[in-house]
Amino acid sequence: MSLLKQLNLTNLPSHIAIIMDGNGRWAKKKGLLRNLGHQSGAKTVREIVEVCAEINVKFLTLYAFSTENWNRPKLEVDLLMKLLISSLKKELNTLQKNNIKLATIGNIDSLPAKVSAELKDVVEKTKNNSRLTLTLALSYSSREELIKTIKEISLKVKNNLISPGNIDESVINNHLYTRSLPDVDLLIRTSGEQRISNFLLWQIAYAELYFTETLWPDFNKENLFEAILNYQNRERRFGKTSEQLK
Ligand code: IPE
Ligand code: IPE
Ligand code: MG
Q1: Is 192 in the pocket of ligand 2 (CB under 6 A)?
Q2: How many domains does one find in the chain?
Q3: Domain of 30, in residue numbers
Q4: Which of 77, 111, 134, 234 is deepest in the core (most CB within 10 A)?
Q5: Tens of pLDDT along 72-127?
Q6: pTM for the predicted model, two decimal places
Q7: Ligand 2 center to 69 CA (angstroms)
Q8: Is 150 inside a domain boundary?
Q9: Ligand 1 pocket test, candidate residues 191, 195, 214, most atoms within 8 A of CB
């Protein structure tokens, strides 16, 4: 029986973020080149996006390429960029059909021109879709995002547009790449690593963290339901006592 039946569809995480890790190890285990791991990982993205739209998760944010990933061998980076372009071209129809809006966070201008052009095109074409917002983190670093935010706010302070005393959480939120997204409810990382790797440091302040040994290419909708079920069995206290929540 699918775990879907056990889910409480009225208590879904509104925003799920995923650190999609383990493509390389998946390929290595099979004696394949790393790149085939990435290709297989792209199929997982498709399945997970579709199922999130089906069950009505409103926001899905995927860590696809970190700023630190630029330090990988050039051949791997080039192939990842190619894979991104071909996936975007291939998936546009599915995004439209399923009413999914594509968004990006990260330093998009640092991507090869062809990639950023393709991204801008799909973002523009899907901007009025409303069932699910799929955000791809590309050339993303949370610390870089925070530095950018601090610089922008400082400039506004200098120009008397904001007074330092008025800087609060919402001012910070409004300057992040994620300004139109709610806080993350559930953060999933595949492949057994238990670290954040510079992803959404501010936005996961009160997220529930879920780590699974499953490698990203092997992750499927049942694994996602398992993660959501686990999330639903937790008590999110936000600093209060358990009794206060009753
Ligand atoms: C995640 O898989 C994909 C990216 C970071 C682009 P990895 O490529 O990191 O796979 P492992 O961690 O080497 O197994
Ligand atoms: C994190 O995975 C980045 C993405 C999933 C895109 P990495 O494989 O790059 O992370 P580390 O370096 O092992 O922490
Ligand atoms: Mg990795």
Answers
A1: no
A2: 1
A3: 13-140+183-233
A4: 134
A5: 999 999 999 999 999 999 999 999 999 999 999 999 999 999 999 999 999 999 99
A6: 0.98
A7: 7
A8: no
A9: 191
